[in-house]
Structure formats: structure tokens, C-alpha cells
Amino acid sequence: MFLKGRNPIRTFDRAQNGQLSFVGDTPTGGTGSGGFESSANGVVLGGVGGESSPNNLTGEEKFLFATNTGSNSVSVLRTRGDSLELVGVTPTGNHPLSVTVAHGLVYVLNGGTTNGTGFPPSITGFRLSGEGQLTPIPDSTRPVSGGVISGSTQVSFNPAGKVLVVTEKQANVISTFTVGADGLATGPVTNPNSLAASGRSASPLPRPESCSPPRTSAAWPDREEPHHSTCNKTGH
């Protein structure tokens, strides 16, 4: 949740019929922005091996990682059965929105500011220990391709943990970074996310020439009568 002044992890029990019942809140040690964040993967479940939820990257279920948008940090909580225990809080960058985990690496997407006057969006890397401690990777911060108006929303490793993918909603692109053995990301490579962004246009579907055209009604010339078209099907 992104609550101003506090940013708890809210826990629910799920019954066999799918009904949810509230259990309690666990503090993350950070704060939220107090507003709606159009982002994904602000909370992920995983471990040193990778994520297990929401993106199944064949990881563990040992830790919960949560971004604190209001206090510019990420929290790591240890899972203990049905409860959570705060391990630590680590500074990230301006306005962290999304987090991803793979092979002992944690990368956070910092959304920056969207009005074009503040910090640009970026990604920042950390090493994850088996006890849930995060250590910043020196010189790992990389800007995303869309700049301050990119509208960045999500960062995620590919299943192999070798590529980072960042979606940029307002810039209408997807940026990718390759990750080396030293944990440092190289990039970004900008990939258009639509035909308009790539400079191409969609071709209209051709109308079969052998289909009979719609008929108009004598009483209502501007309306088409319901009918069944007769088409010669070839090559089907």
C-alpha cells in the first residue's frame, strides 16, 4: 500500500472458498507517497534465487521486498509462516516504484519526478545476502531512455536473470538492460511499444472481393438490411 506517513504490508487469510479476512499490518519502516501509484511489482516475494511472485522466476519465498515511495527506500521482510519480520530498510533513489530479484541481485526502479523539473527515472542495483541484507552495487545507477517524462512503471528480470526490462508508459517504449557477472547493467536499448512509436501504421484488413456488399433498405436508404454475405472461400 502507498499510504502517506506509513507504508504497511497488509496481510489476509484466504479461506477455501476464496474469502479474504484481514489479519493485520506489518510496518515496513518506510513511508508511502499518499497517492495512487500507476506501477507494478512494488511488492515481490522471493529470495537469493529469484522471485516466486508475482513473476515466477523460479525463486524462493523467504523474503518480501517492498518499495517505500515516500521515503525513497526499499524494505526487506523475512517470511515466518503466516507472519513477517522486518530485516532492514535501504535507501534507493527518488520515488522507488518497482523491484525485481534474480540470482542474488536486486534492482529497483526509481520513478523520479514526472513534471520534468526533478530527478529523472533510473534503476539502481543491490546484492542480496542469504540473510536478507542489501548492499548497494557501486556505480549501478542507470537512467532509463525516456528521461523525466518517461512515466516508468515496472522493472523486471527475465527468467535467466541476464536482462532487465523497464516499461515506460508515457514515453511509450520498453527499455532493456543486459546485466553482467559483476551485477552492473548495460544500456538502455530502447524498444518502441506501439506502431505509432515505431513510425509504422497498421494495414487495414482487406475485404474479400467476392463477398456481396451490404444492401440498403428501400424505406431507409441510409440503413443496411440484415443479411448473410455470400463469399467464395478459397485457400481455406
Fold and architecture overview:
With 236 residues, the protein is mostly beta strands. The chain has one helix and 16 strands. It has a five-stranded antiparallel sheet, with no helix packed on it. A hairpin with a 4-residue loop joins strand 14 and strand 15. The longest helix is centred in the last third of the chain and has 4 residues. The N and C termini lie far apart (52 Å). The C terminus is likely disordered.
How would you briefly describe this protein structure?
It contains one helix and 16 strands.
Number of helices: 1
How many E strands? 16
**Order of strands across the main sheet:** 4-3-5-6-7
Amount of helix = under 10%
Structural class call reads mainly beta
Please state the overall shape, judged from the principal axes of the Cα atoms: globular
- Separation of termini? 52 Å
**How much beta, percentage-wise?**
35-45%
* Major pleated sheet: 5 strands, antiparallel
The helix/strand order is EEEEEEEEEEEEEEEEH
Poorly predicted spans: 201-205, 208-212, 216-236
